[in-house]
Each structure stands twice: as C-alpha cells, then as structure tokens.
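retry 2 of 3: previous attempt timed out while embedding adenosine-5'-diphosphate. Reduced batch size to 1 and resubmitted. Inputs unchanged:
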Amino acid sequence: MNRTVRRIVIILTILILLPAVFFTVNEILSLKQNEEVISKIYSNQLDAILYSVNQYSEDVVSDWASKIDKFHDDLNNFDDVKIHLSIDSFYNQFPSLSIIFVADSVNSEIKLIVKNEDNNSLSKLGELKKSVKNILSENQHLVKRLLTYKKAGYRKLEPIKSDTTTDASILLFIEETPEGLNRITGMMIDPKEFTYRILSPKIQEIAQKEFLISVFNREENYQYNSSRDFKVGEVQQSKSLWIFPDYQIGISLVGQTIEDLVQQRALTNILLIGLLTVVLIIGVWIVYRNIKKEVEIAQIKSDFVSNVSHELRTPLSLISMFSETLEMDRIKTEEKKKEYYSIISQEANRLSKIVNSILNFSKMEAGKRQFNFVESYLNDVAENVYRSYKFHLEQKGFIFNIIKDESIPIIKVDEEAVSEAIVNLVDNAVKYSDSKKEIQIRTGIYDSFAYVEIEDKGIGIPLKDQKKVFEKFFRVSSGNVHNVKGSGIGLSIVKHIVDAHKGKIELSSVVGKGSKFILLFPLSH
Ligand code: ADP
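retry 2 succeeded.
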C-alpha cells in the first residue's frame, strides 16, 4: 500500500472508526444499566397509579364521612334502631354503603341506621348489633387511636377486617356531636359494590388502553378487571386496597411486560448502533476508496508526464543530432544525406503522431471530440493502414498480413478515427512483440457487426490486466513494458472511438503467446 494511502487509513481509523467502536462498546455495556433504570421508572409509574386509586377511594369515603357528620342532628334523635323516613334519600348519596352504625363508646349501646327498603327482621338486626359490638371491642386499640387523632383535631378513617356476618368491610371514624361528645361511627361497605360503582369509572379513566387494572380477592376468587379478563398471575405489580384490606389492586401494561419493553428497547438500540457502525464502516470504506483512487490517479498522472517526456525526447534528440550533422556539412555522400533526411522526417512524423494522440486524448477527455460518420468500406480503411505500415514493418523483420472478408457491406464509420484505432493497435502489436514477429489484420462479419482484428504473437497480457488495459494511463507492470515507450493512453483512445461507433472491443490474450484485439462496428449505425 502506498504510504500516503496508509497514512490516510490510519487517520480515518483514529478519527472515525475508533470513536464509533468505543461508543458502540460503551452503549452495549450501559444497556444493562439503562434496562434497570427504565424498569425502575416503569415500576414507579405503576406504583403511582396504584397509589392514586387508593387515594381516590380514601377521598370518596372521607367525603361520605363528612356527609354523615352533617346528618348528626337526625342521628341524635334515634333511639336504638330507628327507621327514618328520609333515610333512603340519605343512603342514595352513598352507593354500596349498606349500614351505618354509631356508638357512644366501645361498650355502649349500638345504634344501626337501616334503609327502609331493607326488610331486616329484628332478630337479624340484633345479631348484627352483637357482631358490631364484638368487632368494636376487638378493635379497642384502634378506637383509642382514632379518639386521640380526633382530640388533636383530625378526623381519621380506619378500615378494619370485614364483618363475617355481612361480608362487608367496616370503616371506623369518630364524629363529634353538637354537644361536644365523641361518637364512634362505622360504615359497612360492600367491597364488590364499591369497586363496581365507585372505583370502576376511576379505574377505566386511568387504565384507558395502556394498562390492565384489576381488583381481586384471592380467597374468594373475586376479580374485577378494567378491560378483558386477565389472570392474576399476569399482574406485574399489586398493592392492598387501603379501604378493603382483604382485597388487592393489581396492574400490568397492555400487551407487553416491562421486561418485554426494556428488552425491545435494548434490541432496537443494539440494532441502531449496529446500523450506525455499518454505515460508518461503509462511509470510511468509500472515503478510503476515493482517496486511494485519487492517490493512484496522481501517481498515474506523474508517470504519464514522465512517459510522454521520455517518448518526446527520443525523436527530438534524433532530429537534433542528425540535423546538426547535416548542418556541419560533414556528410559527403548524397546517399547518406538522404538517409539522414529520411530519419529526420520519420522522427518528425513520430513526434507529430505522439502530439496528435495526446491532443485527441485531451479532446476526448473534455468530451469535445467530434466524429464524422460516412458510408465506407471497412476493408478499405484496414487496407490503407496495412499498406502504409507494410514496408516499415517488413523492414523491422515482421511478417505482416491482411485477410479481408469481401462480403462486408458499406457501413457508417468515421474513417479517420477507425484508422487511428487500427494504427494504435498495430503500433502496440509492434511494441509488444518479442522474438516472434508476426502481425495479422483480419476483417469479417460476426453477428450484426463488421470487425477488424489485429493479432500478434507477442508478449501477451495477463488475464487480471485484460480489462484494465483500456483504462487511461494504465500500463501492464510486467514483461518488457519498462523498456517500451508508451503513455498508457492508446487503448483508451481506441475504446473511446469504438464506443462512439456504438461498437465493442474484445481482447483475447495469453502471456507469452500473443494478443488479439477485435474492433466490432455495428452493420447498421
Ligand atoms: P502504451 O502507450 O503503454 O502502449 P496503451 O494504452 O496503448 O498504452 O496500452 C496499455 C498497455 O496495454 C500497454 O502499456 C501494455 O502493457 C498493454 N498492451 C497493449 N497492447 C498490447 C499488446 N499487443 N501486447 C501486449 N501488451 C499490450
């Protein structure tokens, strides 16, 4: 690898790839941490939702307690169990509240406030009163605590274990009578009714389509769900319902679990990072390729300048050497003089050929080369080149032949350009022939093309270079190429000419055996 290219590769690696790799490794390492953080956030969020449901139920029953407070005067008028006429409208304010009871102290008489519609028999009510009394005496410590709160000016509600006879949950609080007495008050609430009537609208509002919220009681196998049924096992997080200690409220995310979400995020992140790395690698590779190409072109251009200068120097020095000799009148015989003049004119021709080909090349590069297509006989074009080279090549010891296919019809070509292409190929055949000096031009028809092929028995072109020889400035780096002068533009000019004719160029060559270039021109163009 060229030193400049190597340096660029190192710089690119340090500047782009290394940070990207560090970033990727760091991201992958921190994914686990992120997972934990996200998991915690989700879990806090679920917790907050559960908390808000509990808070809501507390607010509702607090509100009820306040309303019951206001009902005081009426309560005062009751003896034992009294059926009040306005009692039903009073109870309507508290859906799911089955019975309110009051007692002056833990051991005093219990008063029950019963709905009119409930046809409770006296014996049943008596039983209920007994059980309430039991509950109160079992929870004396709680009542004491509530009284302490009340003295401090704070009305607190306390849920206690459900009553076995009614299946309801009991909420205790202390109310103050207008006379300044503290009275123990209890609300017996049906948990299922409360969940259904009071909590469910709130739960629906919170759950919407994102969460599944469920209120359940494992012992009773009771379950209320915010949406479709889902098993208690699917619940991701649960809490006891404050108002009904026997009941739980659970939540889970719709569709996916937190772990699923976190894993999905992690997977997306890794994929994105992977993609980013691939894009970076491709980017670096493209930049590297372009720079490498630029460096190669710069190298090729400088080779070209030195090759061309070398090619120009030889004929120029020959011309100046022979013309100086003639100028000094040192040559006596006319024959010798003629020979020298002919060398000078030959070298001048060579010079102009080189200059012409460079000019053509630069025109071609600028896209300014014009072609003049006229109806012509391809055989004639090839024959003309053959004639003008025959003597010269035979002088150099070549066997030079032409075999023409007389059936080739008239086709439209730029005669000058086509003969320039053939001349280039014959020139190369001469330059790259070794000991076996044989060159053959052949014309013919193949498919819908007329062709001219130039075959030599020279050094041949390695397979790996056969495509590249048509690239500008390319010269095969093996064989005798270093001894042979050339600029590496001849074959690219030939290809350009063939392309302009919408034709094709084909090459078959074996190293050490020779090469065959075939120029194919479409019959109808
Ligand atoms: P150059 O001025 O170097 O001859 P060309 O574009 O004409 O440039 O040819 C490109 C390269 O292809 C040559 O340098 C040579 O290595 C190889 N080449 C072309 N023609 C022949 C041939 N007939 N036999 C062997 N090698 C050839």
